[in-house]
Amino acid sequence: MKKISITVLLSCLLILSVKNVFAQQIEISGGLTQKVLLGQQKDVFNPAIGYELGLNHHVNDYRMAHSLNYGLNFGLFNLNRVINDEGYSSQYQQLFETKALFRYDYFINDHISLFSGGEAGFQFINLKSDQKVVISSQRATKVFTKAILAPQIGVNFELNPNLAIYYKLTYDLGYYIGDQPDWGGLTSKWNHLLTNSAGIRVKIRTGFY
Question: Where are the beta strands (DSSP E) in 5-142?
């Protein structure tokens, strides 16, 4: 009986120590994003400005100078066609992204952390035009799908344990599944973009492991 009591006591102490080591938090992030096309499409479309929103599970081990994050990122962008010889262009692509995320943060000190990771998911593309004659109604309602793999690196500026400002540099490698937008000239199904993002991260503690 005494041995059982000691075992139970040691088990409770172990659980309590683990609770004090691992923190579980929900991380909400959002910011502005610029996407710049690379390769042969660089001369066809202007850089895109859009918004991204992330919802992640944040795990912090207080014994180590690192944390892990995984969850989902969403993005909404407009990609404008380059101005034509007449001095204007009414055509653009409307992009919606949904991607799974994994991120590893390494803390240099209490205020700065470096991170690396990646995203994988899909981008859904609608062709749009300010002039109905430029694009048919059938073409305007068609949704094109692109698979995306996006490794990333960046830095967090930790204002406090629950709030940070981030900068992120991402290389987006995309491949059109099925048809791809042409607008008069087919390009490769492969798509390369360089993405710059900046925004804020807010961590909300939900309990302990």
Answer: 22-37, 48-61, 66-80, 91-107, 112-129
Q: What is the pLDDT of residues 59-88, one digit of tens each?
A: 876 656 788 899 999 999 888 776 655 544
Domain of 44 in residue numbering reads as: 24-131+138-205
Residue 19 domain flag: no
Given the DSSP bridges, would you call strands 112-129 and 143-160 parallel, antiparallel or unpaired? Answer: antiparallel
Q: Are 124 and 144 in contact (CB under 8 A)?
A: yes
- Number of folded domains in the chain? 1
* Residue 12 forms part of a structural domain: no
Cα–Cα distance for residue pair 25/202, rounded to 1 Å = 10
Tokens of 124: 């859904």
Q: What value does the mean pLDDT of the chain take?
A: 78
The CA distance from 127 to 114, in Å, is 37
The alpha helices in the chain, defined as continuous H runs, are 2-19, 137-140
Query: Looking at the domain assignment, is residue 116 inside a domain?
Result: yes
For residues 14 and 209, the answer to whether their CB atoms sit within 8 Å is no
Q: How far apart are CA 171 and CA 194, in angstroms?
A: 5
Instruction: Provide the whole-model pTM.
Output: 0.75
8 A C-beta contact, residue 166 and residue 155:
yes
Q: Match 């859904």 to its residue by tokens.
A: 124
SS3 183: coil
Report the candidate in 72, 90, 73 with the shortest Cα–Cα distance to residue 81.
Answer: 90
CATH number of the domain encompassing residue 75: 2.40.160.20
